[in-house]
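Recall the central idea of this unit: under ordinary conditions, the amino acid sequence of a chain determines the structure it adopts. In this exercise we apply that idea directly, starting from the sequence alone.
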Amino acid sequence: MQNDVGELGDFLDSGAFWVAGEIVTLAAIVVAMVTKDLRLALITLSVVPGLFIFIVLWQKRARQFFISVRRAISAVNSALQENISGVRVIQSLSREDVNSNRFEQLNRAHLQANLRSARMSAAMNPLVELLVATATALIIFYGGRSVLQGTLLVGILVGFMLYIQQFFDPVRMLTMEYAQLQRAMASGSRVFELLDVQPEVPESPTPISLPNVSGEITFDHVSFSYEPGLEVLHDINLRVSPGETVALVGPTGTGKSTIVNLIARFYDVTEGRILLDGHDLMDIDLTAYRRRLGLVLQDPFLFSGSIRENIRYGNLDAADEQIIATARTVGAHDFITRLDGGYEYVLHERGQNLSMGQRQLISFARALLANPSILLLDEATANVDSYSEYVLQQALERLLKGRTAVVIAHRLSTIRNANRIVVLDNGRIAEQGRHDDLLAKGGISSRLYEMTHAPVTGTAK
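Accordingly, the structure predicted from this sequence is:
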């Protein structure tokens, strides 16, 4: 997409002005020829329809070739970015040669697409030269006869010979710019294809703004499918009270992350409705709602920049004292001050120069500083060691205090601290209740607990 925008920019910066200037020059020469001798002017212009016919036929194939070039360079850039991002996986699986060969194939495809495009562009110039020669021959033939018959002055004939050269100079330039225009149009079609994509979550024409959010969330007969006919959630009925922490548990693929995505309104429900404080989520101002929402993911995303900037990301007006106090609250202050530069320590892409636990603590601080009314946590303590989990659990307790929270978790410590556990199975709520009560029932939750923790207990014995 960046290359497409650059192609459009290059044409608008220079090509568009050249085209306007050449058209004016061309019109002036035509007027001069018609004024001097209408018959010779018509003879000169008789070759122009052939040029237009060629251009109409040429552009149909040329645009396809130019689009193929844009797609080829897009594939090259995508593969390059993917290989750089996944370099550790590639090295660990000894895939360097395979990936290098695939990248070479993409580069060759890009080369071939450029060669086809270049050949198509080069076909324009020989045609223009052929038209120049044809027009010159016609003028010499008919004009020479008229001079011999005494009906035309030699000076006018010589003048028309010069006019032909001046007439076709702009034509040469316009054909070159036309090829550039086709490239720009190919890029423009890809850009507008992206711009024409409608958002999956449209704003309400009359959105409701909630000045205060207590955090009551209600799923009212909610069903959802990512693809038509493939339902992921089936008739979900669930009420989360203000300030309540609800843990979602269940096997992989049962819809836990989907519920979190629906609450964040990354998608809209297929059937039923989700209510926030009694209002349909689809009727609430989306931007204002998400300002009251905090989201902490299993793999926290940190931005390139200082730690201070990352913590302040959701609350740009926060003072330095608030940032430090928030970091202390979640237990991140101590390790931040040990870094070179402290809060000004510059993070690499996605915060790769910090450990997973440190990145997660910063994401907790970022969420807390934004002061959300509702917190959504997707396996926030899944990928950390025991000590980091202990630190994160303490931070989590402070983060959840007084807030409505929906937590996806498999860690026993997180599940036990929840006010209620909702067990999902095949997109439906199988059971819900407190941890000890669910274990006593001997249902799905009990079986999941035994599969996760019983082997560890047996080994310890």
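The radius of gyration is 34 Å.
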